[in-house]
Here is the input.
Amino acid sequence: MIFAPDDNKMPSIRELLENELFSDVTIVRMSQKEIKIPMRVKNLFETASQGILSRFEKYKKTFNVKLKVEKMQRFLDSEPEKLRRKKIVMEQLELSRSAVQ
Here is the structure.
């Protein structure tokens, strides 16, 4: 099978041409090394890529903020932090009780 992955690699052009499915395909040799793309199409690609990049940056920022929030939540939920906060509250209660008396 031509599209079944063998050793997790894509078939080469030569292997594709040797396959009976593509045996009648002719190869066109180009004299130029580059393809000319109309300016309108280039602008469309540029606009699309800018949109993708801006969306990526937005998602990246959101993801990083979410990671920071989760890290802070894990810290606040940790047992040593709970004990530290409880100790502070108890000290404040003692101070307020001693101030009242």
Remarks:
- The longest helix spans residues 39-77.
- Residues 13-29+38-95 form one domain.
- Helices lie at 13-18, 39-77, 79-100.
- The radius of gyration is 32 Å.
